[in-house]
Amino acid sequence: MDEKRIKEVFADEVFVKQLFSLETPEEAQTALKAKGIEMSREEVLKLRDALVAASQEAGAGGGEL
Fold first, then answer.
1. Burial level of 59, CB count in 10 A (0-12/13-18/19+)?
2. pLDDT tens digits for 4-61?
3. Which are the contacts of 35, defined by CB distance < 8 A and separation ≥ 6?
4. What pTM was estimated for this model as a whole?
């Protein structure tokens, strides 16, 4: 995966919010593929877990995402 492209995509707050609203890993795969990022279902699940953990950490510290 192209790290630069991933950073560009995840810097797009609107896209990230849309990604969070998706119901299934397959929907996330489709959305990411449209942005030029190919991820396996397992990678999407790992990404979800990491984003949720980061979100919870930020919330516990009173900070914003």
1. exposed
2. 888 899 899 899 889 889 999 999 999 999 999 999 999 999 988 888 888 788 776 5
3. 5, 9, 15
4. 0.74
Structure tokens at 61: 């510290």
For every residue of 7-44, which 3-state class applies, written as one string? HHHHCCHHHHHHHHHCCCHHHHHHHHHHCCCCCCHHHH
26 vs 15: CA distance, rounded Å: 16
Domain boundaries, the chain: 3-60
Q: How far apart are CA 38 and CA 9, in angstroms?
A: 12
